[in-house]
Amino acid sequence: LYMIPKSHPRYESLIQREKIKDAYKEGYLADSGMIAHGRGEAFDYLIGEKTSLSSEKAIKTSVATLLLAKNPVISVNGNSTALAAKEIVDLANETNSKIEINLFYRTEKRVHIISNIYRNLGYENILGDDSENLKYIDNIDSPRATASEEGIYSADVVLVSLEDGDRAEVLVDNGKKVIAIDLNPLSRTAKAVDITIVDNIVRVIPLMIKYAKQLKSKDKNYLKKIVNEFSNTENLKKSLNLIEVAKFEG
Ligand code: PTJ
Fold it and tell me: Among 115, 136, 116, 32, which residue's Cα sits nearest to residue 79?
């Protein structure tokens, strides 16, 4: 990584840019992954680059949902891998979730590099790579809609991040409970899914791990109560409010 002094006022943001740039140079970030990151950065700026109370509530509900699931799957792509691969492995272990590679711009080369990243982190059975006979959700025979039979294809809960709206809708239409990490509260993904975490993936996954450690010893009724008390419509309204009240304080 390019040396960024820790004292730099935009240190965290610059580190994320470096990771995205490096992932691009290593050949596993989609070309438009750069654009997607830039859009996320802008929304992050508007919400003050911190986890709001509504995001924390959505995070807690998401963890309860993963812990209650029969076959929970964490879907990963180029951007989520660049920013949070190690933490994603920890979250999968804490919540007994599977990890599946699901790329919007799928190429053999990108799949290969990404699966090696997870293997090098000690996560052996990554799903969705080319060694499997992949199926297609909703019978959309497109490389964008691949699904591993034991993963997303049969999952009851899927966690997606930086996901395209069409694919999020296909998952919802197929009866999956979908959790999305998306900084844009107005995106089609944010509106389509069951739980939207309007926050940066780099802050979300570590907090999910913290909640998973707390909640995994709780009984099912306790977890169900958390899930039942959550309204995604309210959550999205509150997230939008954060942007509306962002004021010039100069
Ligand atoms: O690796 P691939 O081939 O699967 O491609 C991945 C991208 C991200 C290129 C693809 O899924 C895509 O084009 O996504 P979109 O439609 O640009 O949506 C990305 C969404 O993620 C946008 O709403 C961004 O605001 C949001 N976003 C960007 N960075 C972050 C983020 N959300 C959370 N944390 C971030 N760091």
Answer: 32
